[in-house]
Specification:
228 residues; alpha/beta; Transcription Regulator spoIIAA; 7-stranded mixed β-sheet; 3-stranded parallel β-sheet; 6 helices; 24% helix; 21% strand; globular; disordered C terminus
């Protein structure tokens, strides 16, 4: 990388099938790429199973894990307020519905907690929402349309429209061909590595956070009425 980033955001599914030992391989490689000493914030994806998350937080405490939580970081002259959550889906997957009791209610609670955290943005801070699941279908285009309800949450998109964080970062949509979108005042990035093929760089000091055409394989400006 040409320059060391101020912070690193990991949008979940850092390992596969809950294999915690993979962190011992993945984290050092990522930190070698971005620079040792870079502060790391992360949320869990669906591959980091619920029953393993306490162990992961304990064993890899060099990462600031956010589960419906917020943290602050200073990058250059900017104060960043980072709200993190696995996020929600419009519809639980079949496996989730069969195996996770009350998953629909859990998704609804997550949306409400994120709403409350965004309502307490510090004055003058740049707010970043870090999710695993997408808050819009615009950045999952390329996946099968029939799977959109299991990729994104319209309710979380409403929260973005209302609260207007500067940036929202998510993963999960590995086959996406559209990696950026705009919801209201918020630039949304799908940073899933299988989709982008590279680490996504966001310059918080830039006047506009929308990537230039040559940097964005696909982008979209969306309104809530056009979803799904």
């Amino acid at each position: 990388m040409d320059r060391k980033p101020g912070i690193l955001l990991l949008a979940g599914d850092i390992v596969l099938h809950g294999d915690v030992e993979q962190y011992n391989v993945v984290l050092p490689k990522v930190l070698d790429a971005v620079g040792r000493g870079t502060r790391v914030f992360a949320v869990f994806g669906n591959e980091e199973y619920d029953e393993l998350r306490a162990e992961i937080r304990g064993r890899f405490s060099e990462v600031t894990w956010l589960e419906e939580e917020a943290a602050e970081a200073v990058v250059g002259d900017d104060l960043l307020y980072i709200v993190g959550s696995t996020g929600a889906l419009d519809r639980p997957t079949g496996w989730q519905a069969r195996n996770i009791s009350g998953i629909g209610e859990r998704y609804a609670r997550r949306v409400e907690v994120v709403r409350q955290l965004l309502a307490h943005q510090p004055q003058g801070a740049m707010t970043v929402l870090l999710l695993h699941y997408a808050p819009t279908t615009a950045t999952v285009v390329g996946e099968r349309e029939a799977s959109y309800p299991w990729m994104a949450s319209r309710a979380m998109g409403v929260v973005l429209e209302e609260a207007g964080p500067r940036v929202c970062v998510h993963g999960h949509a590995h086959l996406s061909k559209v990696h950026t979108a705009v919801i209201g005042r918020t630039v949304v990035y799908n940073v899933a590595l299988p989709a982008t093929g590279r680490i996504t760089l966001i310059d918080t000091a830039a006047k506009s956070l929308e990537p230039r055409a040559e940097e964005a394989p696909g982008r979209s400006r969306v309104t809530l009425g056009r979803w799904m």
